[in-house]
């Protein structure tokens, strides 16, 4: 038997499910800690095409957790680094990049009906809601990542419905807006671990002036570890691969 890059996956899933994955196109929003890990896992699973949406460039603070980041890539757009990573793993994978911050005002660049699955790994509520609504209108399955910041234990991650989440501020905001829009269900990856309080003063120095000087009116970042965002991305990718391939234990 001649091996291929997906032989070990075929031994678990079977040949036909992996062949199905090679025919699928996924639209992925966000290439940070969760999105980068989700992308890498989906590429290694054999999904054949991706459209990538992200406006950010890598910074030094990404190095502790974002699997696509490397020191030499600081300042590089994440969509460009992601394409390079995909090519290194599967040169035949089809990639389209959109270096943009997704908002309802920029949705015209994308036709949601073109995709087999939509993956939301961003943390802007307004954008998340619009992505979910557009996917629902297009009849395309969508899965969303909830809050992974200020958490340490990846074993607390789970896949559930948005309306079954608790103790997650991002999930609460998304639930509220989806309820207003009449959306009755949404699969999400979320952590049941209570969030930790960030050590802002210890890291940046004591006093409000220190924090204001560091962030100049910007929203203070959450703490984040190598563990939870990456595990969330891999868990999310497993859901997508299972559903797109039709794989089951039975």
List keywords for this structure.
alpha/beta
Protein described:
The chain is of the alpha/beta class and 250 residues long. 39% of the residues lie in helices and 13% in strands. It is built from nine helices and seven strands, in the order ααβαβαββαββαβααα. A seven-stranded mixed β-sheet has the order 3-2-1-4-5-7-6, with helices on both faces. Helix 5 links the parallel strand 4 (117-120) and strand 5 (142-145). It is globular, with a radius of gyration of 18 Å.
Order of helices and strands: HHEHEHEEHEEHEHHH
Task: Give helix % range.
Answer: 25-40%
Stretches where pLDDT is under 50 for at least 5 consecutive residues are none
For the termini, the CA-CA separation is 26 Å
Shape: globular
Instruction: Name the strands of the widest sheet in spatial order.
Output: 3-2-1-4-5-7-6
| Strand-residue proportion | 5-15%
Walk me through the topology.
Layout: H1 7-13, H2 15-22, E1 25-29, H3 33-45, E2 49-53, H4 78-89, E3 94-98, E4 117-120, H5 125-138, E5 142-145, E6 157-161, H6 169-180, E7 187-191, H7 200-204, H8 208-215, H9 228-245
Parallel strand pairs: 1-2, 1-4, 2-3, 4-5, 5-7
Antiparallel strand pairs: 6-7
Helix pairs in contact: 1-2, 3-4, 3-9, 5-6
Give a short summary of the structure.
This protein has nine helices and seven strands; from the N terminus they run ααβαβαββαββαβααα.
